[in-house]
Amino acid sequence: QVQLVESGGGLVQAGGSLRLSCAASGRTFRTSAMAWFRQAPGKERDFVVTISWDSGSTYYADSVKGRFTISRDNAKNTWYLQMNSLKPEDTGVYYCAGSIKAVAGSAESEYHYWGQGTQVTVAS
After folding, report:
1. pLDDT digit string (tens) for 55-111?
2. Contact at 8 Å (CB) between 64 and 87?
3. Torsion angle of C-alpha atoms 120, 35, 85, 10, degrees rounded to 10
4. 3-state secondary structure of 78
């Protein structure tokens, strides 16, 4: 009964910025970790970042640390990914994910609800 919808993707030049949003509707859990994953063309889906419900602590993939920032609005069941200093290798489909657990890590199996994805293309 939970649906996640991403938005904010598009085409941007290298060095530019985008902000992705993920809105959850339907049944929601009172405690849920939230995350972003991405899948580059021809590659497997990779972990990007997660944020815990309990403390708001975050864990970023090394490839995006210092450039991307996750944030959340628990009251609105919405979380965001601010992406700065974008590189061509950041190109891919970005997926938001939610967990039934308050704290979750980098494994896809730890997340139970997924959005349809939004395309991000970074041009050289």
Report:
1. 889 999 999 999 999 998 878 888 899 999 999 999 999 999 999 888 999 999 999
2. no
3. 20
4. strand
Residue of 67, 78, 74 whose CA lies nearest to 20: 78
103, two tokens:
């704290």
Residue type, 27: R
Q: What angle do CA 70, 98, 76 make, to 5 degrees?
A: 70
In eight-state DSSP terms, residue 115 is: B
How high does pLDDT run on average in the chain? 93
